[in-house]
Amino acid sequence: MMRARQHPCNRYGWLYCQPAHYQEAFDQQIRFVNEACKADSQFSGEPAEMQPWSEQQLRGLASDPFYAKQFQQHTEKLQGEADAVVQQLERTLHELAAMADALQAERHHLLTFLEETRD
Q1: What pairing do the DSSP bridges indicate for beta strands 5-6 and 16-17?
Q2: Alpha-carbon distance values, 31 to 49, 54, 63, 110, 118 (Å)
Q3: 56-96 pLDDT, tens digit each
Q4: What is the DSSP string of 4-30?
Q5: What is the mean pLDDT of the chain?
Q6: CA–CA separation, 44 vs 53, rounded Å?
Q7: How many Å apart are CA 7 and CA 103, to the nearest integer?
Q8: What's the pLDDT at 1?
Q9: Spans of all domains in the chain
Q10: CA distance 119 to 117
Q11: Which of 28, 79, 80, 102 is deepest in the core (most CB within 10 A)?
């Protein structure tokens, strides 16, 4: 008996599929690879057609509770990662703004020396 396996499309590899859905996707991937190899014997990697095909498959599966839960968990994970990046950007922005302020303050300080020599 086959267990749930990660979807064969690179973009959706985080999603665990029930055996029949995995097999359907894997078989389709093999067909796309075989077609690509006929056109280019040096072909390697994921065929360009795999992602759009997988999107259609997953749209049909998204209402299934087994998949809906995974979609929800993954979207929450992505949101957490995005929030962390925003926080890092904000920290970096504040640090760079403080550096710019310090540089401007030093520039103004040095300009006072030049202004004194003009008097």
Answers
A1: antiparallel
A2: 10, 13, 27, 71, 81
A3: 999 999 999 999 999 999 999 999 999 999 999 999 999 99
A4: PEE-SSGGGTTSEE-HHHHHHHHHHHH
A5: 95
A6: 18
A7: 52
A8: 55
A9: 1-61
A10: 6
A11: 28
Distance between CA atoms of 9 and 78, rounded to whole angstroms? 18
Look up residue 83 and give its amino acid. D
Show the tokens assigned to 112. 């006072």
- What is d(CA 110, CA 80) in angstroms, rounded to the nearest whole number? 45
Neighbours of 91 (CB within 10 A): 10
The first and second tokens of residue 66, run together, are 């087994």
Report how far residue 28's alpha carbon sits from residue 52's, in angstroms, rounded to the nearest whole number: 12
Question: Residue type at 52?
Answer: P
> How far apart are the C-alpha atoms of 7 and 22, rounded to whole Å?
6
Token pair 């202004």: residue: 115
**Is the whole model's pTM more than 0.85, yes or no?**
no
| Cα–Cα distance for residue pair 17/61, rounded to 1 Å | 10
